[in-house]
Task: structure prediction
Amino acid sequence: MADRVTPAPPATRASRTTRAPRRLGAGRQARRVRLWTSALIVGAVVLTVLLVPPLVQLDEQAVDLSRKLLPPSWDHPFGTDDVGRDLLFRCVYGLRVSLLVGLVAALVATLIGTAVGAAAASLGGWTDRVVMRIVDAFASVPHLLLGIFIVAMFRPGVWPVIVSVALTHWLSTARIVRSEVLSLRSRPYIDAAVSGGASRWRVTVRHLLPAVLPQAGLAAVLMVPHAMWHESALSFLGLGLPSHQASLGNLVQSARSSLLAGDWWPTLFPGLLLIVPTLALAGLAGVWRDRLNPRRRSELML
Amino acid sequence: MSRRLPWGAMARMTGRRALAAVPVLLAVTFAVFAVAAASPFDPVKAYAGTAGLTASQENLDQLRANLGVDRPLVARWWEWLTAALHGDLGDSSVMRRPVADVITERIGWSALLAGTAFLVAILLGTALGVLAGRRRGGLLDRTVSSVAYTLEAAPAFWLGLLAIWFFALKLGALPAGGLTDTASDTVTFDQVAAHLVLPALVLGVSQLPWFFLYVRQGVGDALDEDSVRGARARGLRERTVLLGHALRSGMLPMLTLVGSRVPELITGALLVETVFSWPGIAAATVQAATSVDFPLLAALTVLATAAVLLGNLLSDLLYGLADPRVGFDG
Result:
């Protein structure tokens, strides 16, 4: 969106003035629509995931072989799976598991990343160099492969998955936090704190960290869908959660046999439930990012 | 390109990167061994299998000594490293063959799949990006962008399964997986080509959004630049302006993407090869992981790391070539 930063040269001003106000207004309106749809979807997903399991007294594991593989209908909006379980329920439970794993993993990754990034930047010198080389080395192993390796070495389960996702995702946060801290370090208020006799620890914790928290928070929000995606990929490969804690990835994996028989719904809906919250979260994060640095607006999300 | 290529600078950069890659690869191999040492995984039990349940402690200890796992971590790592430099990567327990053989046999198929997919992503992404960037906010732009964001969020394995359902089961047009038909045991060009279409398309489409979005942004921004305005003022054809001026400067950010997408390409290949039972190294990695085949998994992890480093080098070389202001100092 270079046209909003650089003023339009006179040659094209005629064409621009007729177009620009409408485009600007339309853009703002579109952003507002995007914000509200995203917020609505995220809210709906969170509420569903939190409220449906305790409120609805139905067993998602209840097997009913007489109603197996029913296509979507009013009774079963998502259809039923190969042992007659209602897919809508299974998906809600799966989303609950995926979201929980994603949230915890993103939180752990953000904590590690912020701590490492802030430490590297505020200590500086060779500590900084060594830490950033370690980050680079970590970053040169593909994330999913590293995750697969960790989960394979420790038995598949909830915690290995969370650990492997967290261990592969803190790098970006560490880089963001480090560069933010480095740019903040030269600000006058930091100089003031240092000349006022504040220790390095106090400067970092009281002055630098609070200032980078919005950026770290943004990275954390964007990391939740990544972590969910990661978890479902691991689960799909059979290296994720155990099947009694079925996540969306497990649902897709267990639907493979019925897919080969031509029944598409057990595969389609878990995937859709992964995409929709991801897009909604990305939309929210995009609005947040526009707030944080309105000048560096880019349409590249995720 | 009429300009002579700066071979010297490129070679120096390659050399520097090769030197910098050595400590990274050493660190990664050591980390792989350290994780294995810290994990509850026991290579002796894995080796002995069900026989290990009834074997005496003596036999198990003997086995432990034979496998060399009673020695400290650093010694084992060093031994593996020196053997690996001589081409001996150990034996894979799941494939029942030397790891080096498994890799040489499968890497070609993986390269074929990944190369085709990358080509699909780059060509299709650039074409759609130019069309969308030409009229930003138009119908085509909005449609393709929404699809791209959706694809960005969609897991590759899910896309692959849906593609199998639609193209192989509903239409019956393309085979659902494997390298050849199950009946035949010779690999012919026709068969491989037919079996390549679906996995390559799915892998390519899953990589497409990034290329599309970068080109779209680049072309859209470049259309507002003075050079394009100058070209328009000189009365050049719209096609020349779009492809010769806007695309050329808008492609710059995408070029770095070519190399730096390698990790995601590997991630995608892990999923797509598994879905389509493609006999490549990514599918072997997943098999090695599910049956805890440490020698194979370690070798493939290191291989993937080397591929990523190579990709980074490639993207920096391309960017330096395309934009002389950047140079080869990295």
